[in-house]
Amino acid sequence: MSNYLDWQNKISSDRMIVPLFYIADFSISPVDKIVKEEEEKVSLCNYTNVYKNTYITSDLDFMEGSASENEINRFQIRDGDVLITKDSESWDDIGIPAIVVGNFENTTLCGYHLALMRPKKKLVNPKFLFYCFESKIHRAQLEIEASGVTRFGIPKDAIGKYKIPLPSLKIQNNIVEYLDLEIAKIDALIEKKTKLITLLEEKKKGVINQAVTKGLDTTMTMKDSGIEWLGKIPEHWNIERLKFLTNKVGSGVTPLGGANIYTDRGILFLRSQNIYNDGLKLIDETYIPEKIHNEMKASQVMKGDLLLNITGGSIGRCFYFDLDVEANINQHVCIIRVNNKILHRYLHFILVSFVGQYQIDLLQYGGGREAISFENIKNFIITFPQSIEEQKKIINFLDIECSKFDKIKEKVKSALDLLKDKRIAIISATINGEIEL
Prior knowledge:
This protein is an alpha+beta fold. The chain folds into two domains: 6-166, Adenine-n6-DNA-methyltransferase TaqI, Chain A, domain 2 (Alpha-Beta Complex), CATH 3.90.220.20; 237-385, DNA methylase specificity domains (Adenine-n6-DNA-methyltransferase TaqI, Chain A, domain 2, Alpha-Beta Complex). Helix content is 37%, strand content 22%. The protein contains twelve helices and 26 strands. The protein has a five-stranded mixed sheet. A four-stranded antiparallel sheet has the order 16-25-22-23. The two termini are 34 Å apart.
């Protein structure tokens, strides 16, 4: 049996374990991003707002939406509300909290894929409840209850049963005061490390962008590309739409039967959470039976295929499949299979460069700008040397240069991971009463 509730054996005697429904009202929001003419216009606090922010304040950039009178009454957010992510592409992104601070001039609602909790303030300090979800050890309760394979969700009753180690209000207030100070110190260090990683990534992307748009020889004669955001390119390079450089642009599907057909072995089934710019992360792999794989011929992956995430928060992440195994993909991932005009590694560098990501961002569609169509992908503008040998030289150069950035980034990331572990440990120990205040 899972040991995800082992923390209950560590709590101090001045705490009692209570379910969330005892200390807070909670509900699952159905309010989506579709604007309906007959409904009232509202601001919508969505998944990204909660996932990326500790505090939900009126100065955040909210989506425009609409809602019925009943939805406004039920899901309008108020000071002290705690919101958590209810659904995600990855089970460990479930239960991420944010706390609402201050009043809102505009009607602002808790949106789809989120759960809203309204603490009973006579029983619980809202910030204490927030910290109970910030604790990775405690949040494991929701992660283990999440259902799904390609997308994970928390059942409503699992939220209501979420166990809280509840001390008196006085102790809660002391805990909040202590954690606010200690976590602020750690978060400041985390922010510095995170900014350094971002800076390294930006510099790396700049080196890539220079190589795939200007080449390696600074003495080459340049010509105007005729495209404002691309500028000048080497005179002997081509500019073509992606569709003329590929034999295939298309995505997979979720197999009939959904999660019921997934297995622990068989044919590797890749999802958006497996695709990153710097590699394929094969954690918690999913497999499908060979029979299903053979039926899904259009989404079978070949060695050398570029895999591009085309929906959700990971849109734009791209890597090439270089494994000597059979694989298939779901509908959130696009296969790009190149022809003999361009090397797949060269095209990968273009797609992760500034000019590639600019086009991905520019051509997204939908109310939340959360998807990109195959037609738009086919119309990406690609600049490249006609010579395959020159493409190889650029690839070799970038492999060497990128590895330098990656080595530094790994050292910074290791330090960052230690800080995050320390943060989790302090929050969990304080909530359980293992740290005397």
